[in-house]
Amino acid sequence: MLKLLISILCLTLLISGCQSPIKSKPIDPNLPKMPYSRWHISGRYPHLFEARVYDVMIKTQSKKYKIINIAAGDNYNYETPGQWQTRFGITSLPVYSDLPEEFFICWSSFADQTFYRTKLVMPLWARQEMVKPHQYYSYASDKNDIGYNDTIIIGFAPGGSVTGWITGVPQQEAIEFGKGVTERIPQGSDVCPNPYIDGKIPEITDEAKAWLKKHGMPKEWQEKYNNVTMGQYLKLKNPAKF
To answer: What InterPro entries would the database entry show (predicted)?
Structure first.
């Protein structure tokens, strides 16, 4: 009996030794690790030229998908609506997730009377910048402190123009990280469901119309300069949502 037990034990050890261990997928050392529990997102549109963001999904750098909200507000560039002001401090929303790698955004431009769908990619260097500590002197606490560029700003302008920046404390000027790739989506599309009760995008104000009559549409706000195309998803009968 003892010999049988020894034989079984030896056989078990032999079999287990022949099996190669299961290798776990290595973690990419280049992926930045967040030193905070949340990052922030802020949406902007040029003064007078309102845009509404109504359906947003992100793919994080850990390959997970998450639905988030982006509340687009006035950029307060009163004198030059055709130019962006990306100063830090305008209201932003917290997002509790890993850093984003891609944004998929449904939005509408009042000036264009058009629905758009935009993909905005956040490159690795921008995510690395979001976790880099920056030392600065805090006048509020009267001591040296550490700040991060943990806020993403996304600007939505006529012509399907979408721009992304990162900013934070003590960043003086926001850092642009990319332009979106935009598709024009007709009303009623399943890709970007119409968020308006009456199905109609609100018009721009008389003040905005007067500004356009005087200055014309800036080059940066024209679809042909933003490579806007008709969405390929429109050919599908029941396209998947993102």
So the answer is: DUF2931
Report domain extents, the chain: 38-137+144-235
CA torsion angle 232 235 240 241 (round to 10): 60
Higher pLDDT among residues 224 and 118, named by residue: 118
Q: What is the DSSP string of the chain?
A: -HHHHHHHHHHHHHHHHHSPPPPPPPP-TTSPPPSSS-EEEEEEE-TT--EEEEEEEEEETTS-EEEE---EEE----S-TTS----TTS--EEE-SSPEEEEEEEEEETTTTEEEEEEEE--HHHHHHHT--EEEEETTTTEEEEE---EEEEEEEGGGEEEEEEE-SS-SSPEEEEE-EEEEE-TT-SSS---STTS-PPPPPHHHHHHHHHH---GGGSGGGTT-EE-GGGGSSS----
pLDDT: is 35 or 219 the higher one? 35
144-156 per-position pLDDT tens digit: 889 999 999 999 9
